[in-house]
Amino acid sequence: MANEVVPSNIGDLISGEVMAAEFLLLLADRDDSLLRHPAIMQATAPNLRSNVVRVPHLGLMGYDTLSATTPGSEVANTAFSDDSTDVTIASRAKVYSVDDLAAYISDGVFDSALLAQDAVISITQTYIGLIANVTDDFTSTAGTSGVDASWNDVVDAKTTLGIAKAVGEMMGILHPRQWGDLETDALSMGVLPANSMSGVIMQGLQSYKGRFMGIDFFVHSAVPTADAGANRAGAIFTRGAVAVADAMIPAESDPNIINLGRGRFERARKGTYLETSWVTSNHSGAAKAIDGAGVTFKTDA
CB 117: neighbour CB atoms within 10 A? Predict the structure, then answer.
């Protein structure tokens, strides 16, 4: 039996490992439901001739009330109040360059359809990161530096928005650490947030945690740190607090380019390098608009 054909005797004919039929995705934020909330204002410009989109603020619809008048006297002119926010659009992109041999032996991992899906998700997550890095800078804040988030902090933020006359659907963008602290705080009071605070959980969404106290809460790891890393700076705000803008990508007849609405996905062949590049690009920006319509939520990191 010395000539048995066993794996140890045919090492030149087999590989040490084989790829599984399925693959695992590395952990990342992938849910885009946050961008569909009405509190996010999309600043559109029908004829974009600049990379800066200006959003006007108008003192109308009850901003100025009426003053008492004196019979026989001319009514004094009321100064019209206005302001504006400029949203600067900048280009962002990423490229995966795949060698021909690497593509051949990777058994379909670098499939164009899979990379196109990645492009869509990457663009939306870039948007969310831009928003999170704007909403951490409102003048009004809630929470205590170095102290875990609590529902009392949420009430403080909501009260501040009410005093500022901020109206409309409220949303909160918190770091997972902050949301975990809120859950712990609810349990310390002997209640479950979803039951005691009328939470409506949307199944299958990674970032949406529910509606509590009239606020739709989302979590995202892009929520930045503050105070030299001591805190996380989430936010609770209404429509008007932040504006986002993008440059609409013109239609292309090139079959190697796919228009994704918010961006572009294209295949670029480099024959002299025996390489194919997959390019995802987007032109967008975000800016704080009406400062009083948002409250930065600073709590222990």
Answer: 12
Burial 161-197 (b: 16+ CB within 10 A, else e): beebebeeebbbbbbebbbebbeebbeeeeeebbeeb
DSSP-derived secondary structure for 99-148: EHHHHHHTTTTT-HHHHHHHHHHHHHHHHHHHHHTTGGG-SSEES-TTS-
52-105 pLDDT, tens digit per residue, is: 999 999 999 999 999 999 999 999 999 999 999 999 999 999 999 988 888 888
**Which is nearest to 178 in space by CA: 136, 233, 127?**
233
pLDDT in tens, 182-197: 999 998 887 765 544 4
* Cβ–Cβ under 8 Å, residues 158 and 197: no
Surface-to-core class of residue 49, CB atoms within 10 Å of its CB (0-12 exposed, 13-18 middle, 19+ buried): exposed
Query: Measuring CA to CA, which residue among 64, 45, 47 is closest to residue 55?
Result: 45
For residue 135, pLDDT beyond 90: yes
The mean pLDDT value for 24-35 works out to 89
